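To: structure subgroup
Subject: Chain for Friday's discussion

All,

I'm putting the inputs and outputs inline so they're searchable in the archive.
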Amino acid sequence: MSQFNIEEEIEDIAGGEFERVPVPISKLKSWKSFLGMYAGEHAAGTEFVIGPLFLTTGVSAFDLIVGLLLGNLLAVLSWRFLTAEIAVKYRLTLYYQLEKICGKSLVTGYNLANGVLFCFLAGSMITVSATAVGIPFNMEMPKLTDTMPNGMTWVIIVIALGAVISLIASKGYDTVSKAANWMSPVIVLAFLACGIVALNQLGVGSLSEFWDIWGEGSDPFPGQIKYTFWHVVIWSWFANAAMHVGMSDLSVFRFAKKASSGWTTAAGMYVGHYMAWIAAALLYAVYLKSPEAQGLLANGEAPTVAPGPLANNAIGVFGIIAVVLAGWTTANPTIYRAGLAFQAIVPKLSTFWVTIIAGTLATVAGLFPAFAMKLLGFVALYGFILAPFGAIIVFEHFFHKQAGIVKNYAEVANLKFNKAVFFAWAISFGLFYFISIQFDVFLSFVTLPAWLLCGVLFLVFSKWIQKS
């Protein structure tokens, strides 16, 4: 799920240029440059949490297996026919493209939201790594319902991990991206090994026995909601909403020779968001059969979702290492990206200090297990907040002629704050977030309606403002 370092990897290949100009033809990359990146970057620390969390929602076998197939396909189609299509047309970064439409002041607000949400995601990955580091110290693992730190050992380990990760991120991206490239195959192999070992521990010898692991589903664990087929489909489609329909990966695919390179995202979706999620879910299925988990369930408590012990139970020390690496390779570039977002707001601060600030915020977030234990909900919220900004770009690209509006209006009119963009986002966000809260509607269910409404309102408001 976490491909936040892809942009930096490609820009590193290209010399770190073209932030405010189209990518020249001489720097374009073939589809092969994207295939490995997406396959590796979506088998990361988040997958160790998301897979088990699906089981806590009482999902059935059909809903999980088939729902993930369809949801991930919709994500691939979004990348191919929206993100990649627009990226190869203009070959600009998301931030510069938004600036031309929205104005610099409004993009500053977007950067702030992006940076803070990146820090929270990085914090959840520090939590993931801490569950592995804590094993030799017999650390009490956070429970599914925990929100606060559960002991001094937990606090010390999280702070130590956060300090190391932040310091490495602050030194620059070259080492981070190269290390991630080397570690990604190890992590993918670990997921595959975990899945195979878990199947053996569950005594699965046929497809029907595999199917019976989840069967017809069950009641959700305490504090969780029940996931149906459509919950799985829609959530997995919008797990990376900010990246595809939110257009963040314009920064990636602007280097693609053809829009067809968008199909390479299938490697990430079906290696990481399918194989890795199911493998991690199998690890949790093994744990749920243990006396400890059965005892917790009998007392009406939710069994712990701690990636470190789960992987350790399957493949031993290799599992512990894989969890640490998976969390590290996700948190490190995410902190780096958060630092860049903050630096756009306070350009006088050096990259070192904005990254340290971002790392500190991520470490504080990592102290609170809720960010990792509620990752399904957080990822849904992240996409819901940021995705509508992508609708601005999509609707302007495809419908500006029909609507009779000027493209890149903030640039043409020398605006720093395009009110049409702000009010379109604020109304769509406010309306559908209210519907989600007031009527207890699954947040991912309203992400697409909010995205569509934001795009339509942008065209309407733009027509009115430009006319006046």
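Points worth raising on Friday:
The chain has one domain: 6-387.
DSSP finds 21 helices and no strands in the chain.

D.
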